[in-house]
TrEMBL record:
Subcellular compartments: Membrane
Superkingdom of this protein's organism: Eukaryota
Membrane topology of this protein: Multi-pass membrane protein
Record has Transcription regulation as a keyword: no
Any one Gene Ontology BP term: vesicle-mediated transport
Protein family according to the UniProt entry: Belongs to the PRA1 family.
Protein name: PRA1 family protein
Amino acid sequence: MTTYGTIPTTTTAVTTQPHDLISGATDQIQSQLSTLRPWSEFLSFTTLSIPPSFSVATSRATANLPYFRTNYTILILVSLFLSLITHPISLLFFFLLFGAWLLLYFLRHAPLIILARVMDDNVVLLVLGVSTVVFLLLTDVTVNIVVAVTVGVAVALVHAAIREVDDLRVAGAEFEDERVGFSRGGGERLPLKDTASSAFSS
């Protein structure tokens, strides 16, 4: 018997595919690497000087931290790598966990869907946080990681405080735009997670 009015149905994705996560993360990483400043500029000894006062040091740090943010991030990651280089198994698990944080939280540009259910960001954050705590408890590198991050952050703060900023303003007019969080093309420059969240709400 012939039937009429049948509406074809389409199958929707029930789980976020790994290649979608990797593709989105790759785009975000490339975007962030575009803000990497030349290391010759970052390490120029002619621009280093002891700040005459705490207010000057604070002013320099306020300017340098966003300007060299990608360089400082790489510096801290190198510090972490060196602290774990003598613990290859822990280093492997650390990179796996670090990759999970990047793919599933910081660099994710679309909702995470598992078995046709959209995973709430708080759930993802809780799972990653618990996994991180378990990793730290089950390995003997907790002290190494804490010391490495502390050293990396301390070096970044010292560099930000002693590096003069006059040449940064001369280097490009967009520096001031980046410091207040706006790009030259217009529109607010959001942190990575805010960018992802705004994509979810659209």
